[in-house]
Specification:
- The chain contains five helices and five strands.
- A five-stranded mixed beta sheet has the order 1-4-5-3-2.
- By secondary structure, it is of the alpha/beta class.
- The protein has one domain: Mannitol-specific EII, Chain A.
- It is globular, with a radius of gyration of 14 Å.
- Helix 1 runs antiparallel to helix 2 and helix 4 packs antiparallel against helix 5.
Length: 162
Amino acid sequence: METQQIDLDLEVLGSYFADDADAPATWEEALRTLGAAFVEHGCATPEYIEAAVTRERAFPTGLDLGAWAVALPHGDPIGVLHGAISVGRFERPVRFRRMDDAEREVEVEAVFFMAVDDPERHLAVLSKLMEVIGSGSCRREMLVAYDGEAIANVVKQQLERF
């Protein structure tokens, strides 16, 4: 079987949320907080964040992977200025509705919020992220990362590894 290396060319932004009053308490707060990093770093417009929140309401992205639960929110490329992933790790998990059953929720420990500027690349990014988050090493390394820079570095290294 032949494999092809995918050049994702994505900026990776990381955030760590301790179990305190400043941590997002809802999925919507989590998306808005992680989305603010996109805007701050010139990756996306505020309209993109609003579109992603609207999309999450209609099409939830929470995934229970057994060992941990994650969410993979995203929106249409309108408002994306350049490709990026805003990753947040939560000491106090945030409830997201499940992708496979929107009537149920899952307590998410990490959110991988994607802003992909090319619709054709979106599936490649999603596929690569699924490999990364499904690996035990990603979970282990993420759970001992206690600041945004460390979280971003874990994700960058994992993306390069797969």
